[in-house]
Specification:
Keywords: Membrane, Transmembrane, Transmembrane helix. By secondary structure, the chain is mostly helical. The protein is 70% helix and 0% strand. It has one domain.
Length: 426
């Protein structure tokens, strides 16, 4: 008995000695050691998204101020060679591109510095979620330095920004379609959970009624005469797209219901309306009330448009799952809550997109005050975006059917080959 007691005490002493010699790095690998720290880091990371969104909003408001009131702000900027005499190359279109370039540089730098960050305990996460005074200095330096670049370089950036803005629209479109598909799957009837589809039917019905009313209003408001052939084509083709999407969605081989196509119809009708509204106000086929000065409706519409686009940029930036090619990777407790590289990529492309909105996609023409995304270039960008949205949505519906048909054909061919080989054997 004495020997057993001594042996037990010796083993306990040896065990405690070994544990005291284990490095902290190894102790931290045990489950539950860093749970509180991971939760705190995750909350800080999620909160950082809103800080970046606020920075993006403030930067674009600065872009608007430079565009509409830059001439007064840069009244004596002729001392700066990059701005030209009187500062004409630092406001209006060139001013918008300069601020956009500074914003792009800031978010692209954040992209490069977080490119390998995947865990909450890594330094990339600390940099992404903290050090805000240093980031504000970096942002101010990026925007300020953009006003020292020569006009030719800024003009070249404007051409590059057109491409970046187009990529941003494509990413945003994919995110919207992915959200619609998720919403449709969420409201699909589930026998195991005894989930009803009544709400989905209600939403789809309201969506189609609203889409039809929207088309009718556009026919009434934007086709005052039969000579408005372009608007007739835009609205009629939109109606055709709605019918095609509904027919494909209800096809027996697709069988996706009316909810997703109804919500997509709202998006397509809104895109058509937005495109027609972007037509120059002086055109007789797009009667718009010309408001001079800071009218309340004009100001509110302008600010709401900016906030809506910032919100769309924010939602696209945190939706990296829509662009994953592999969905079988399990999420671990110490993983970052969203993809930092994709987040900053979307915001850097969003800076280019905002620049195109403020200058109406035209590098050689100044827009009027308190206006955003008007002109024929903007019209065709929105129309093409609408058509691309409908095309991608229809492809998303029929691609599983085509893949299944291809697999079936391959299996039938293999089976036929096996039958022929078996029949030729003696």
């Amino acid at each position: 008995m004495r020997e057993a007691t001594v042996t037990f005490e010796d083993n306990s002493l040896e065990t405690s000695t070994r544990n005291s010699e284990v490095p902290k790095e190894e102790l931290s690998d045990f489950p539950g050691q860093n749970t509180i720290e991971y939760i705190a880091n995750r909350r800080t990371s999620l909160r950082a998204r809103y800080y970046y969104g606020t920075i993006f909003l403030a930067t674009n408001l600065t872009t608007w101020i430079v565009r509409d009131y830059g001439q007064k702000l840069f009244l004596h900027s002729h001392y700066l060679n990059a701005c030209g005499f009187g500062g004409h190359d630092c406001f209006h279109t060139m001013g918008v591109l300069r601020v956009s370039f500074g914003c792009f540089i800031f978010f692209f730098f954040m992209l490069l510095t977080t490119i390998k960050g995947t865990k909450l305990y890594e330094v990339q996460n600390a940099w992404h979620s903290g050090f805000w005074p240093a980031k504000f200095v970096l942002l101010a330096a990026s925007i300020t330095s953009a006003f020292f670049f020569p006009p030719d370089f800024i003009q070249l950036y404007g051409e590059f920004a057109r491409v970046g803005a187009g990529i941003f629209l494509l990413l945003q479109l994919i995110s919207v379609i992915h959200f619609i598909a998720w919403w449709n799957n969420y409201w699909m009837p589930d026998e195991e959970r005894k989930q009803s589809c009544s709400l989905g039917i209600f939403v789809s019905t309201i969506s189609y009624i609203t889409s039809a009313c929207g088309l009718g209003l556009m026919y009434k408001l934007y086709i005052p005469s039969s000579s408005c052939m372009l608007n007739i084509f835009f609205i009629t083709w939109t109606a055709v797209l709605l019918m095609v999407m509904m027919a494909v969605s209800l096809h027996s081989k697709v069988n996706r219901g009316l909810l997703s196509s109804g919500i997509m119809s709202l998006y397509v009708v809104f895109s058509c309306w937005s495109a027609i509204r972007s037509e120059p106000g002086c055109e007789r086929c797009c009667p718009q009330t010309q408001v001079n000065g800071h009218h309340v409706v004009t100001v509110l519409s302008f600010l709401i448009a900016i906030c809506a686009i910032v919100a769309a940029t924010f939602s696209t930036g945190i939706d990296s799952e829509s662009f994953q090619f592999r969905r079988d990777e399990a999420q671990e407790d110490d993983d970052i809550p969203y993809n930092y590289v994709f987040f900053h990529l979307v915001f850097s492309l969003g800076a280019m997109y905002f620049a195109m909105l403020f200058i109406s996609w035209n590098l050689n023409h100044s827009t009027r005050r308190w206006s955003i995304d008007t002109g024929w270039a903007s019209v065709w960008v929105k129309i093409l975006n609408e058509w691309l949205a409908a095309t991608l949505y229809v492809w998303k519906l029929i691609s599983p059917v085509l893949r299944q048909a291809k697999v079936t054909d391959q299996e039938a061919a293999v089976q036929q080959t096996n039958i022929e080989a078996a029949s030729t054997e003696p």
